[in-house]
Every structure is written in C-alpha cells, then in structure tokens.
Amino acid sequence: MVALAVAALLDRGVASPREHVALVGAGLVKTLIVGRDPLTPQDLAAIRQIADGRGFAVVALPDMRAVDPDIEAVLAATSRAALDRVTLKGEFDLRPSTDDRPFFFNVMRLRALWEPLPAADAATIEGNLLATRTLGMTVIASFLFAVGSVVWPLARRARPKGRIGRTLFGGLSYFLLIGVGFMLIEIAILQRLSIVLGHPIYGLIVVLSSLIAAAGIGSLASDALPLSSAPYCYVFPLVVGAVVVVFALVWPSIAPSIIAAETPVRIAWAFGVTLLIGLPLGVAFPAGMRIMHERHADETPWLWGLNGVGSVIASSLAILIALVGGLTVLLLVAAGCYALLTLAIAVMRSERKT
Questions:
Q1: How many domains is the chain built from?
Q2: How far apart are the C-alpha atoms of 114 and 139, rounded to whole Å?
Q3: How far apart are CA 325 and CA 314, in angstroms?
Q4: Alpha carbon of residue 90 to chain centroid
Q5: Within this chain, do residues 47 and 141 fall inside the same structural domain, yes or no?
Q6: How many CB atoms lie within 10 A of CB 194?
Q7: Residues 11-24: what's their mean pLDDT?
Q8: What per-residue confidence (pLDDT) applies to 303?
Q9: 73 vs 84: CA distance, rounded Å
Q10: Please, are residues 75 and 17 in contact by the beta-carbon 8 Å criterion?
C-alpha cells in the first residue's frame, strides 16, 4: 500500500515522496494519508493529536523514521528503479501494481514454487502461496494432459507416413509456435482491454468475439494471397510480430485517454484493436497448411495436434510470464514466437519439389 502511494507520487514528479505520506494504525489495521502537496507541520501535529487521542500508533511521518525498516526503505525511494529494488526481495514481490502488471492480489515471486518459506511467512500469506503454487501445478498439468490427450493418441493412430525429416519437424515447430503465440497474444490483449472496458463481461464479449471473428476473416482472406510462396511466406510472420510489438509499446500511452471515454467509444476502440491484430494472426495457420500440403498432407493431424498443445500450455504459461515481466513482456514474447516462424518456414521449404 505504501509502495503504491510512493509510485503514484513519483509518477507525478514528486522528488521526495516521504514528505507527502503519513501512516498510522492499530494492530493489523492501518490508515494511509497521502497528500498531493507535502504535509505541513500543522498537518503532522493534527495527525499526532488524533493518533494519541484514539490510541493509534504512528508508523511513519515525514519528520520521523518509519517504525518498520521495510516501510522506511520504501519511503526513501526517489525513483521507480529504487522502489522496485526495495520491493522485490527474497520470495516476495511487493512492487506497486500497474496496468501493465495489474496483479495486486499476488505478492509471491515464482521462486516460491520450489523454495520453502519460513513457517511464519508461509502462515501469513498462506492463500497467496497456495495460489502461486497452484498456478505452477496448472502449467505442469496442462502439459501432461496435452501430451496425454493429443500427442500420445497421435503417436498411436496417426504416425508419419515414412517421411520423417527436417521438413516435418519444421512444420511441427511452426504449428507449435503459432499455437503458443496466438494464445499469449489473446490473453495479453484480453487483460489490457478489460482494463479499458472497465468490466470483465465486456472484455469477454467484445475482445474474444471480435478477435476470433477477425482471425477467421484473416484466414478466409489468405486464400487470395500468395502467402505460401517466397518471399511472402517470410514476410507475413514479421508483419504479425511488428503489429504486436507496436501495440505493446504504444498502447500504454493511448490507454489513459481511451479509459476516460464513453462506453460505446471504448467498445469501438477495443473492437478496432482486436480487428487490427486478429486479421494478420488469422493468416498464419492456413499459410502453414499450404506450405506443408505438398510433402506432408498425411501428417495434417499432427499439425493440428501440435497447434492445440501449444495453445493449451500457453494458456497457463502466459500468466506466469505476465506475473514476472508484465503484459508488455508477454506481448514481446508472443511477437518473438511469430518472428521464429521465418526459421521454421525456411526448414519447411528446404525439401520442396522443384
């Protein structure tokens, strides 16, 4: 709570946030006072008088060191980098939440998945610890179930027809990458646009429906485009990656003005964003199928299967990436998946018939 106040003050250009913050409380209940302007001596005298009269303990004031050394370190931070250093320590992630990292409910670092916490700390944040470890188990479970329900049946019933080689492995990598990349992008823009739309229902209805529809239109439009031929087959993955990178870097500066707009305007913006991203996303799957059709038409079930495996694993992996690095990093990782398609395509086309 104090870190969030300090971050807000730093973002407003305040050089010394501790001059603007007072913290008093009784037991586990605390009251945080944050002033747009520095707290005056009269303000501090009034706070002390009220605290004494009501039996509150003064935890931190501008003219005294905080009782808790961790809170003192937070109040002493004069930049976001310094604030991040003192709030990201050990097994805990107490960095202030932002639109890029809106996970205010989670204070655990991923190392808590495998490093045991001291008994006192584990008891204090038992719910957070359970949630973090459950997320880690979800990633493992999704991988095991995907292998068990997709890969294993394919290995038994749809074995490659005697032409296992680098072309096939290139194709499998291609469809695995677009499965992962598409799901990472879907979850990232769903989270970002849900913040803009203001209600989870709007996010589900507007974002998911428009993204799937746009990807379907892009897939249909790919029939008229020479995306399975050079040089276009190498260009479209880079175009997809570039669109995602631009969205990742530009959106934070645009979002505040969109949030302040009326609901129909926000819905229109969300629809426009998903249309812009979804159209190029939709061309990757059919383009890959056309490239593979010449030599590996019989292995189509494997291509579908690996695409599904990537999507299933990425659905939970995306949350882990976002918790560590934020939604911008998540989108950049997704863009990297699409950029890697160029290598997979080069392998897929290396044994084409002349």
A1: 2
A2: 14
A3: 15
A4: 22
A5: no
A6: 19
A7: 92
A8: 83
A9: 11
A10: yes
CA-based nearest residue to 214, from 285, 281, 290, 267: 281
Evaluate if residue 120 carries a pLDDT over 50. Answer: no
Q: Which of 98, 277, 264, 274 is nearest to 193 (CA)?
A: 274
**Please, is 294 exposed, middle or buried when counting C-beta atoms within 10 Å of its C-beta (0-12, 13-18, 19+)?**
middle
Q: How far is CA 42 from CA 23, 38, 39, 45, 49, in A?
A: 16, 11, 8, 5, 11
Task: Identify the CA nearest to 211 among candidates 187, 235, 195, 233.
Answer: 187
Q: Which amino acid is at 96?
A: P
Q: Give, for 23, the enclosing helix (H) or strand (E).
A: strand 21-26
Task: Assess contact for 109 and 115: CB atoms under 8 A.
Answer: no
Extract the tokens encoding 281. Answer: 């996303």
**C-alpha span between 137 and 235 (Å, rounded):** 38
* CA 330 from centre of chain: 5
Range of the domain at 275: 130-348
Sign of dihedral through CA atoms 113, 117, 119, 123? negative
> Is the per-residue pLDDT at 225 higher than 70?
yes
Query: Predicted confidence band at 354 (pLDDT cuts at 50, 70, 90)?
Result: very low
Report if residue 123 sits inside a domain.
Answer: no
Residues 185, 75, single domain; the answer is no
pTM, two decimals, is 0.77
Distance of CA 159 to the CA centre of its chain: 36
Does 107 map to a domain? Answer: no
Contacts of 254 (CB under 8 A, 6+ apart): none
Spatial neighbors of 7 by CB under 8 A, at least 6 apart, are 80, 83, 96, 98
